[in-house]
Amino acid sequence: MSAAAKPTSESGAARAGGRTGQVIVASTRAATGVYTDRTGPVIDGWLREHGWLVLDRAVVTDGEPVGDALAAAIEAGLDLVITTGGTGVSPTDQTPEQTLPFLDRQLPGIMEELRRRGTSATPLAVLSRGYAGIARGRTVVINLPGSTGGVRDGLAVLGEVLDHLIDQVRGADHAAAPAADTGRAAPARAAPSRAAPATATPRNGILPKDLRHGH
């Protein structure tokens, strides 16, 4: 599929408040027909299930074509672009290098959590070099791995933060945290005590010598 952005679900756009997203598959073998892309459809389906207006998936060869597809999606003003593939350490894995120049602000916590969850299945998850961040102050870009397991881990992380993230990028205020209700009345504040002025007490009816006559 080309990088040209074409909507595939108008009803999805309505449910998602007009939120638009696109998946970019970075895989030379998938782009040249050597094997069938398996991760792109997983991400597409997940986005539709969550009410997104999903644009035509772009399946491109590794390297500069990934950057070209990203540039087109960002120029179109999409809310979200998810790439899959090309995040490893082989010579052809260049998705992070193609992504980073577009990012105004990075979101490292997303990728840290993705890698953390991935290590429960394989220690090789720590080799993923993907980025997450915001381009042109509007488009959220997420690099997911090229494996179905890595994609599912990534979508699990996004499912917990994506709605709030998009709202914040669009300028929504933070939700006010409700005040804690302990069910107990606040303790009454005690009035400050004032010491009574000192008075001399006669001992056996006789004042001390230094207090006689006001001395």
Automatic annotation (TrEMBL):
Matching SMART domains, A to Z? MoCF_biosynth (SM00852)
Output compositional bias ranges, type Low complexity: 176-203
Which keywords does UniProt give here?
A: Molybdenum cofactor biosynthesis
**Does Electron transport count among this protein's keywords?**
no
Q: Which Gene3D superfamilies match?
A: MoaB/Mog-like domain
Q: Where is this region: Disordered?
A: 176-215
One of the GO BP terms on file: Mo-molybdopterin cofactor biosynthetic process
> InterPro entries from the xrefs?
MoaB/Mog-like_dom_sf, MoaB/Mog_dom, MoCF_biosynth_CS, MPT_Adenylyltrnsfr/MoaC-Rel
Q: Where is the MoaB/Mog domain?
A: 22-165
UniProt-listed Pfam families = MoCF_biosynth
Q: What is this protein called?
A: MogA/MoaB family molybdenum cofactor biosynthesis protein
Q: In which pathway does it act?
A: Cofactor biosynthesis; molybdopterin biosynthesis
